[in-house]
Design a protein that fits this description.
Blueprint lengths: L1 H22 L26 E5 L6 E4 L2 E3 L4 E2 L2 E6 L3 E6 L2 E6 L10
Antiparallel strand pairs: 1-2, 2-3, 4-5, 5-6, 6-7
Keywords: Signal
Protein name: MSHA biogenesis protein MshK
Organism: Pseudomonas fluorescens
Length: 110
């Protein structure tokens, strides 16, 4: 009788886990979540990724989507306005936005 109870409990837990695993993925956004789109319908806007901020004797530069740019340069309809230590201000389609470097994983010790 004890064996049947254990088998029944294990079988029920396996069924519940199998049914829940297919429908609940903690890494996926909710089903009703739609990413915000600032683009004009029918127009493709390229995502901009700030990869590096470089400071040197010849001035500051940034690397956005693999392109090295200075203040005033343009790439993918975006113009570099200012370069700061952790952010870059760009203007695209008449709107200004900041691109940020990822926060460092390691924090300095105290």
């Amino acid at each position: 009788m004890f064996k049947r109870l254990i088998v029944s409990v294990l079988l029920c837990s396996a069924i519940v886990q199998g049914a829940g695993a297919a429908s609940l993925d903690p890494t996926r956004p909710p089903a009703n979540h739609a990413p915000a789109s600032k683009a004009v319908p029918g127009e493709q806007v390229q995502a901009l990724v700030l990869q590096e901020i470089l400071w040197g004797p010849r001035g500051s530069r940034v690397v956005i989507n693999g392109q090295t740019l200075r203040v005033g340069d343009s790439h993918a309809d975006a113009r570099v306005m200012t370069i700061n230590p952790q952010t870059v201000l760009i203007e695209r389609h008449g709107k200004r936005e900041y691109l940020r470097l990822a926060k460092p994983v390691l924090q300095p010790s105290r």
